[in-house]
Amino acid sequence: MCFHRRLVFTCSHHAWLNLTKACDTEASFERGNTDTGCSIRWSHGYDTIRVQDKCAKCAGTQQGDSYRFGVVKDQIQALKEHLKLIKGDRQIKEEAWLSGEVEPGRSGEEDGGEGDRDEKGQDAGGSLSSFSFSPGGTGRLSGGTMVGEEEYLIKINSEQQQ
């Protein structure tokens, strides 16, 4: 077995450098006495060099991963901001409903909470901007109309107004 210098990277990969001491088999091959040389490499602690870099393969992989993680992090951040907008709007409407400023099932807009509603009192547009939340309700939209407790409260309110 021949002793070689070895370069050890922080990723724990290594690279073999030049030969420091040839074994008898390698020396015989270099003299021309044998047909094959030594294929076993060995390194001594004194001939091992540690560097604070990654090997070329790991550095390339890290750049690709960093790019992919950056794209995913950007997408997650955009979704968090969008969710914060939705939750903030929902929280404002919920607080207005709990304080009694807006009737249950109303959108809480400046025009008295009517929004775009048809003659049955249901949301005509089906947009999320006119969605209201009531505690204990389903809080979902189905086909542009509210379902669950909100729909029931709107129906009762419209019957009482008539």
TrEMBL record:
Biased composition (Gly residues): 136-145
Biased composition (Basic and acidic residues): 103-122
Chain intervals with Low complexity compositional bias: 125-135
Record region (Disordered): 96-145
Protein name: Uncharacterized protein
